[in-house]
Design goal:
There is one protein chain. This protein has about 250 residues and is α/β, with parallel strands linked by helices. The protein has a single domain, classed as Alpha-Beta Complex (Spore Coat Polysaccharide Biosynthesis Protein SpsA, Chain A). It has 8 helices and 9 strands. The chain is globular and about 45 Å long.
Length: about 250
């Protein structure tokens, strides 16, 4: 059983956001309600990646004065990887998580991930590909095939053995989070592959956990553009290693 950490935040939850005014309020209501029911201290960090809508204004208006809800705004759009990196480096928790703003993975699964981190895993990542995972709403077939191809290429190019790189629910012990995200270079969608590559380079133990997952049709992925940039990102990761940027 996890106990409340005295005078210290136990858990930081980072939510990257870009043009999320239609769902950010509902997401925060869900997340705040859940975390307030848990027996430990926590903080929620919304990292807005240069939204052109009212995402920032809505969060500030609704959650002003609520100490556990914080917002950090990028002046311009940089990519999901940049948002996650900012939140992870700002987080004060002993354990740090990030999740997508659409809550494709239910926040109620978080305690199972926490138990694994408490038990000694340095990084725990959600997977939709292992036994025990449940896909309630699938992506369109073409996107699923592209996702499988990206997993194969990531493992081949980076020399990893990971079943699901892009599930947007991952947790880290503090030391692992600060070590990995302080060295992160890739800001686009291939950042997931980079952080798992860094985890291996730095000797952290990575565990995969099956999740319940539901596709959201309002995805922010720009299919062909992001496919190409993500593939190029994998080669950049290997190049950054050779150039010594991950020391």
């Amino acid at each position: 059983m996890l106990e409340r950490a005295p005078q210290r935040i136990l858990l930081s939850l980072i939510i990257p956001a870009f043009n999320e005014e239609e769902r950010i309020e509902k997401t925060l209501e869900c997340v705040v309600g859940f975390l307030r029911s848990q027996p430990y201290s926590s903080e929620i960090i919304i990292v807005d990646d240069g939204s052109r809508d009212r995402t920032v204004e809505m969060v500030r208006a609704r959650w002003a004065g609520q100490a556990e809800v914080k917002i950090h705004a990028h002046p311009r759009n940089q990519g999901k990887g940049a948002s996650v990196r900012s939140g992870m480096l700002l987080g004060e928790g002993r354990y740090l998580f990030f999740t997508d703003a659409d809550l494709s993975v239910p926040i109620e699964l978080l305690p199972k991930f926490l138990v694994q981190l408490e038990s000694g895993s340095d990084v725990v990542i959600g997977t939709r590909k292992s036994a025990g995972s449940v896909i309630e709403v699938h992506q369109p077939l073409f996107r699923e095939l592209l996702g499988k191809a990206f997993t194969v290429l990531s493992n081949w190019i980076l020399g990893l053995r990971v079943s699901d790189f892009t599930c947007g629910f991952k947790g880290f012990r503090r030391e692992a989070a600060k070590t990995i995200f302080s060295r992160q270079q890739v800001l686009n969608w291939s950042f997931d592959s980079e952080i798992l590559y860094l985890a291996r380079l730095k000797g952290f133990h990575v565990q995969e956990m099956p999740v319940v997952w539901r596709n959201d049709q309002k995805t922010k992925v720009r299919l062909w553009c992001d496919v190409v940039t993500s593939l190029l990102g994998l080669f950049r990761i290997r190049a950054y290693h050779v150039l010594g940027r991950y020391r």
